[in-house]
């Protein structure tokens, strides 16, 4: 009969291996829990916090402007003398519009000064100057690209917003279709734009889409060739990435002074 003798050194090595496996398993579980918490924070908490903050800012702007209601939902604002008709101009002819006194021409950096309403998406969010992440976009606001025009002005009123997390105001702008309305309220007036066309994907460096006469430098078939009164909405695409940009364009249809 053969007797197997286990040396103390062998037992110690086995014990160390068991401890290493146990420690590794605990670390993996801990890392998994931390990652899960980060995902919950990004996908749920930041959205909730930003949406609530954006709603409070909209209400604050309405109080500041001395009114409690929002823009007309789902209908274009009526035309006024000096403003364009309620229908978009034919072809690419520019539209003439009178900008009422009091329109904010040069808001301070990160200042919220307008409210964007998209009835089809049940969206109503503040517009702030600049597109900084911490100062504007991560608050759930929509940001106005500096050096582009203001609402109602000739040229291109260009905006950016998150598609995912931090309120994700532009999550579903890919659902916008021609003739959908976009309203921009300021202290001076309500401007109604009508969605005209969409560029589903372009480079993040395609600066042509926010020029005064917007036209993609990557996909030249998309955009405009004549001056006009435009609005541009930009966001990241595909979802949960920032590799490309999704662009929606519209034309000014009407203006209603407050």
Largest sheet geometry: 8 strands, mixed, barrel
Average pLDDT across residues?
Answer: 82
CATH architecture descriptor: Beta Barrel
* DSSP strand tally: 8
Distance between the termini: 104 Å
Give the class-level CATH name.
Answer: Mainly Beta
Q: Which structural class is indicated by helix and strand composition?
A: alpha+beta
Helix segment tally: 1
SSE ordering: HEEEEEEEE
Radius of gyration: 26 Å
Beta-strand fraction estimate: 25-35%
Description of the structure:
By secondary structure, this protein is an alpha+beta fold. It has a single domain (45-257), classed as Sortase, Chain: A. Helix content is 22%, strand content 26%. It is built from one helix and eight strands; from the N terminus they run H-E-E-E-E-E-E-E-E. The chain has one helix at 8-65; strands at residues 112-118, 123-129, 142-144, 155-160, 181-185, 189-203, 229-237, 244-257. It has an eight-stranded mixed barrel with strand order 1-2-3-4-7-8-6-5. Strand 7 and strand 8 form a beta hairpin. It is elongated and about 100 Å long. Residues 68-102 have low confidence and may be disordered.
Name the descriptors:
258 residues; alpha+beta; Sortase, Chain: A; eight-stranded mixed beta barrel
Task: Please give the structural blueprint.
Elements: H1 8-65, E1 112-118, E2 123-129, E3 142-144, E4 155-160, E5 181-185, E6 189-203, E7 229-237, E8 244-257
Parallel strand pairs: 2-3, 4-7
Antiparallel strand pairs: 1-2, 1-5, 3-4, 5-6, 6-8, 7-8
């Amino acid at each position: 009969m053969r007797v197997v003798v286990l040396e103390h050194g062998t037992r110690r090595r086995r014990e160390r291996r068991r401890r290493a496996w146990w420690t590794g398993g605990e670390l993996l579980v801990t890392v998994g829990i931390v990652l899960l918490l980060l995902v919950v924070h990004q996908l749920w908490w930041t959205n909730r916090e930003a949406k609530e903050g954006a709603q409070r800012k909209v209400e604050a702007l309405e109080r500041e402007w001395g009114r409690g209601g929002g823009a007309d939902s789902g209908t274009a604002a009526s035309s006024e003398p000096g403003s364009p008709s309620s229908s978009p101009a034919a072809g690419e002819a520019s539209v003439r519009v009178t900008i009422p006194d009091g329109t904010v021409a040069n808001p301070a950096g990160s200042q919220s000064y307008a409210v964007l309403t998209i009835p089809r998406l049940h969206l109503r969010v503040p517009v702030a100057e600049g597109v900084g992440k911490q100062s504007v976009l991560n608050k759930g606001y929509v940001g106005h690209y500096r050096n582009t025009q203001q609402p109602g002005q000739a040229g291109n009123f260009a905006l950016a917003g998150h598609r995912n997390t931090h309120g994700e105001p532009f999550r579903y702008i890919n659902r916008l279709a021609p003739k959908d309305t976009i309203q921009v309220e300021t202290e001076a007036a309500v401007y109604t734009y009508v969605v005209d066309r969409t560029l589903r994907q372009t480079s993040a460096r395609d600066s042509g889409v926010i020029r005064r006469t917007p036209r993609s430098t990557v996909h030249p078939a998309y955009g405009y060739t004549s001056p006009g009164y435009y609005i541009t909405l930009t966001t990241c695409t595909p979802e949960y990435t920032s590799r490309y940009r999704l662009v929606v364009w519209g034309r000014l249809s009407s203006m209603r002074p407050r």
